[in-house]
Specification:
This protein is α/β, with parallel strands linked by helices. It is 39% helix and 18% strand. The strands form four sheets. Strands 3-2-1-4-5-6-11 form a seven-stranded parallel sheet, sandwiched between helices. The N and C termini lie far apart (46 Å). It binds NADP nicotinamide-adenine-dinucleotide phosphate and guanosine-5'-diphosphate-alpha-D-mannose.
Length: 341
C-alpha cells in the first residue's frame, strides 16, 4: 500500500486529491492546522478515512514529524495562503507560508525520506503580467502580487532541490480551477453563491471588482488527477495544467444567472457598469472599486499540450458545466440554510 501526505488537506484541492488517492487505495495522511475549533473543512466527510497530523508550513519541526509519522511515498504540498487579494494585506505571512514553507517541507523530505516524491502547487499567477499568449512551461514569469512572488520562490526552490539533491520534485503550474467546494471569497463561488441568494430572494445585488479580467477556468476534480499523474512518471518535471480557454469574469456572471433561469444583461461602462434583470429591470450586479486590486492579472490562458501529451491528461468538465454545477449546488445549499431558519 502506497502512502501519501497531503498538506492543505481541508482546502478545495486537498479534499478532491484525498478522494482520488483513497480510490487508488493509498494510505492518506493530511496535515491540519490546529485551530480553537476543530475544523476539517472540505475533508469533513473523510475523517474516518484519513489520518490527520497537526502541523504548520511555517514550523519545520511539525513537517519533519509529519514525514516521520507518515513515511509518505508521495508528498503533495497544497497548503498555502491562496487568496491573492489577502496577499497585499498579509505579505509577510503569505511569504512565510507560500515561499519559505516549501523549503521547510523539502528539507523535511531531504532529511527524513529523500526518496519520497514531491508535488508543489505552483500557479498561473506566476505569469502575472503575461509575456506570451498562451502561457506554457517556457513562458517567462512576471508575478503581480505578493502571492505570485512567494509562489515563484516555491516553484524555483522545488526545481533547485530536484537539481541539487536529486529529489523527485515536480511543479504543477495550475491555472484557475474551481468547484462546489471553492472558498466563497474567490470570484466564481462569490458569484454562484450570490446568484443562488438572489434566486431565492435573500440578496438583492452582487458587487464585483474588475469584470474584464480573463481567466482559464477548469474543475478541481480534473486538475488533481494531473497532480497524481506527475508523480507517476519516470522523470520529475514541471507541467502547465489548464483548459486552453479563457473567459471574462463578466461571462461567468452571465452564465451563472442563466443557469438559475435569470436573464441578465450588462449596460453602462467602467465603474457605472451594471447588470440588470431583463424581465424586471432590477439591478442585479454593480461594480464596487473596493474589490479592485493594487496590481491586476488581466489575462490568463494556458497551453496544456505538454500535460496532454506526456501525462495523457485531459480536462473533462467544461466551463459551462462547471458554472452549472456550482450554481445548482449553491441553490441547494442556500435552500437548506433557509429551511433551517
Ligand atoms: P484552499 O482551498 O485555499 O486551501 C488552502 C489550504 O492550505 C487549506 O487547507 C489551509 O488550511 C492550508 N493552509 C494555509 N496556511 C497553512 C499553514 N500555514 N500551514 C498548513 N496549512 C495551511 O486552496 P486550493 O484552491 O485548494 O489550492 C491548493 C493549492 O494550489 C494552494 O497552494 C494554491 O495556492 C494552489 N493553486 C490553486 C489554484 C486554484 O485555482 N485553486 C491554482 C493554482 C495553484 P486552513 O483551513 O487551516 O487555512
Ligand atoms: N475574489 C474576487 N472578488 N475577484 C474578483 C472580484 C471580486 O469581487 N471582482 C472581480 N474579480 C477578479 C479579480 O480581480 C481577478 O482578476 C479574477 O476576478 C479572479 O479572482 P479570484 O477568483 O480571487 O482568483 P485569482 O485568479 O486571483 O487567484 C486564484 O487563481 C490562481 C491561479 O491563477 C487563486 O485560486 C490562486 O490561489 C491561484 O493561484
Amino acid at each position: 500500500m502506497k502512502s501519501a501526505l497531503i498538506t492543505g488537506i481541508n482546502g478545495q484541492d486537498g479534499s478532491y486529491l484525498a478522494e482520488l488517492l483513497l480510490e487508488k487505495e493509498y494510505k492518506v495522511y493530511g496535515l491540519l492546522r490546529r485551530k480553537s475549533v476543530v475544523d476539517y473543512g472540505n475533508a469533513e466527510h473523510l475523517v474516518d478515512k484519513i489520518e490527520f497530523i497537526y502541523g504548520d508550513m511555517t514550523d519545520y519541526v511539525s513537517l519533519a514529524k509529519a514525514m516521520k509519522i507518515s513515511q509518505a511515498d508521495e508528498v503533495y504540498n497544497l497548503a498555502a495562503q491562496s487568496f491573492v487579494a489577502t496577499s497585499w494585506e498579509q505579505p509577510i505571512a503569505t511569504t512565510q507560508i507560500d515561499a519559505l514553507g516549501v523549503t521547510n517541507l523539502l528539507e523535511a523530505i531531504r532529511i527524513i525520506k529523500p526518496e519520497a516524491k514531491f508535488y508543489q502547487a505552483s500557479t498561473s499567477e506566476m505569469f502575472g503580467l503575461v509575456q506570451e499568449i498562451p502561457q506554457s512551461e517556457s513562458t517567462p514569469f512576471y508575478p503581480r502580487s505578493p502571492y505570485g512572488v512567494a509562489k515563484l520562490y516555491g516553484h524555483w526552490i522545488t526545481k533547485n532541490y530536484r537539481e541539487s539533491f536529486d529529489v523527485f520534485a515536480c511543479s504543477g503550474i495550475l491555472f484557475n480551477h474551481e468547484s462546489e467546494r471553492r472558498g466563497k471569497e474567490f470570484v466564481t463561488r462569490k458569484i454562484t453563491d450570490a446568484v443562488a441568494r438572489i434566486k431565492l430572494g435573500v440578496q438583492d445585488v452582487l458587487e464585483l471588482g474588475n469584470m474584464s479580467a480573463k481567466r482559464d477556468w477548469g474543475h478541481s476534480k480534473d486538475y488533481v488527477k494531473a497532480m497524481w499523474l506527475m508523480l507517476q512518471q519516470e522523470k520529475a518535471d514541471d507541467y502547465v495544467v489548464a483548459s486552453g480557454d479563457t473567459h471574462e469574469v463578466r461571462e461567468f456572471v452571465k452564465l451563472a444567472f442563466e443557469a438559475a433561469d435569470i436573464q441578465m444583461e450588462f449596460t453602462g461602462e467602467g465603474i457605472n457598469e451594471i447588470g440588470i434583470d431583463k424581465k424586471t429591470g432590477k439591478t442585479l450586479v454593480k461594480v464596487n472599486p473596493k474589490f479592485f486590486r493594487p496590481a491586476e492579472v488581466e489575462l490568463l490562458l494556458g497551453d496544456p499540450a505538454k500535460a496532454e501529451q506526456i501525462l495523457g491528461w485531459k480536462r473533462e468538465i467544461s466551463f459551462k458545466e462547471l458554472v452549472g454545477r456550482m450554481v445548482q449546488n449553491d441553490i441547494k445549499l442556500v435552500g437548506k440554510e433557509l429551511s433551517n431558519i
